[in-house]
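Notes to self after the Tuesday call (sharing in case useful).
The group wants a holo model before anyone commits to mutagenesis around the pocket. I volunteered. Ligand is nicotinamide-adenine-dinucleotide. Logging inputs and output together so the record is complete.
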Amino acid sequence: MDIKKVVVIGSGTMGSGIAAHLCNANIPVTLLDLKTEISEKARDRIHKSKPPLLIDKSKINNIKVGNISDNFDIIKEADWVVEAVVERIDIKHQIYEKIFKERKDGAIVSSNTSSIPIKILSENLTDTEKKDFCITHFFNPVRYMGLLEIVKNENNDLNKINQLKKFCEVELGKGAIICNDTPGFLGNRVGVYAMQVAMTEAFKMKLSIEEADAVFGRPMGIPKTGVFGLYDLIGIDLMADVLKSFIKELPKSDEFHEVAKEIPLVKRLIETGYTGRKGKGGFYRINKAGTTKVMEAINLETGDYLVAKKIDIKSDNVDLNRLINRKDKYGDYAWSVISKIIKYASSLVPGITKEFNDIDEAMRLGFNWTKGPFEMLEEIGVKNFFDKVNNFKGNEFLKNLSKTKNEDFYGERQKYTNIETLGKVKRTASSVDGNDSAKIYRFNDYNIVEFTTKANALNYDSMDALKKATDKPLIIINESMQFSAGVNLTYTMDFADKNDFKSIEKFIKYFQETCKHLKYSKYPVVSAPSGLTLGGGFEVMVQSNFVASHTNIVVGLVETIVGLIPAGGGCKEMLARWLNTDEAKANPNYASLKVFDIIGYGKTATSPVEAEPMKYLRPEDKKIMNRNSLLEVSKNILMDNKNFKAPEELKFNLPGKSVLEDMYKILDKLYNDKIILDHGVKVARELAYVLSGGDTTIDKTLSEDDLFKLELEAFMRLIETQKTQDRIKYTLGTGKPLIN
Ligand code: NAD
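Result:
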């Protein structure tokens, strides 16, 4: 079975996401909806989507659009028809009747339903039709969420299901997990339960929503939106519908009912239009007081909104044992929530799946958790867990484990895929060392460094781990959402607050030295980024010898936004790339001006296709749809470079003053047009100085060290200014830029 053409029916949130993602994989796709709905609307929505659903926006017209009245004939050509219409069984049944009348013999038909059992979806189909029918449950937003649940029925042609799984894995880059036909499948069954536990326990234990989100978030290896933030994001009304469907489908004995009871405050929020971010607000809301916007949080007891408090529970790394053993309300809450999630998830084995491992993977891929419930149990320790838990009636999994007390119960990871993933491989390392900011996994013929800080922000220790790991070929890769959001600004500001600029200088020098070391050490270094690869993260990547990039990368040098300039080699490397163009050979000012434009505006790219024209990525860098494959591709690069020789050091001939004057003119205009303010000019002038080569002329040759020195000096001059410090503090506090 070859999937060469796909038709998606229903062009709403999911249908357009699925169509866009097929377009990302260069698969011809047609999107159909009701005659009254379609037109250019769906395309327009895809085009404007944020974060972008398309890897390459210029391909938008590759998505054909039509309506089910005039264009249904197209079904005849499709190898796969995906139904993504509203969650109504009558409408879905009508559509299947039409599809099966028209479809090509043997073409696959699947539904994106999130809650209707396949038994019911397929009840009107003949046995032959059932052979080709299944559920393909994508998550929103389709490009970014790794999970695809495939639900089969008892008549399915298994060979075909496996081929579909392979197609979705290889071509669409999804983590495709085959599930049983149970309500909510794996991801939502456990994920929604987890959200409900986190919410109901917050009510019971009288935590504020900010406190609950601060615990049920990064400290537990869960995205920082937490539970109330996630509720607002999904839509409080939509969550209520999801709960209703679970209540209807699940047997009365299911623990889910305990956490799905209607909460009066939630009911009132929905009734008054507070349905979350798409409504007037939700648990959080933005209150516009005059010209300023204030984030407010609801008080769970009174229902009143108060200015949201920033809660720091001082737990930057995920350390579950430390978290659940805290002697405060946060520790109590964390234990209560985690233990209930572990108990519930394990009670579902083997009912919803015999592979408990798949539940963890569904949570990782569908909810971006760093660890699923069973890995949480593994981390807490079987003995520790049973020291605190002795009530697990009806839970076969825990009953058995309580007898064996096997601390190594977990076994292999990521069983759903044959790909040699980082998750699988790192468990087989011959030794593991590192520090609080990064782990080094050592193997016979190569090392892996995985950053482990919040957003993988870089500090002295991160650099130390990189440096230590260059005694063999090295792969820099990680499992968390971001490759690295850049240098840790809090760490830098801690020094600045104490006027300890010497320590900042020492750190930046060490950063430069490490990056140089990555580039010129005896062994090849591969960076395998996914997610944010910004600032210092970009500088690590760009000074690695090879790159294997996921297609979901957000890459760029954004330092100017916080009043700094790239000082870990970012200016230097971007100059080198742009100097190596025909235009630069003809015009000595060309490269400096180009890089000035890119770094000056802190431009970012949201895919490799956008990154290449800016030269953040090169044509020879590998671009990979399936994130799970990054390690395999990186290892192949090492294999292909057994006789690696470090590159020659770069040399620079830069124009100095002549281009500087051009840049100043650009700045004068921006200043006069009030696009930048005083400090913007100062930052840009420092950047201009570095990119012009400083006090030089085109006939003088500068070394990489000369460029590093220029970067460092400019960086230090800027970090010492109050206005740069104001920018950093503002961005750290609000996540937004300060224009000063
Ligand atoms: P949506 O409301 O955004 O879009 C549904 C689309 O179906 C609309 O464009 C509507 O015009 C169209 N439609 C309705 N009747 C039709 C018909 N007879 N023929 C053709 N088109 C018709 O819904 P959605 O959120 O995209 O959900 C679609 C499916 O995906 C549902 O089954 C839902 O349960 C499931 N799902 C949704 C999400 C999510 O986060 N939104 C996630 C996973 C699965």
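Two things stood out.
The first helix runs from residue 13 to 24.
The two ends are 59 Å apart (CA to CA).
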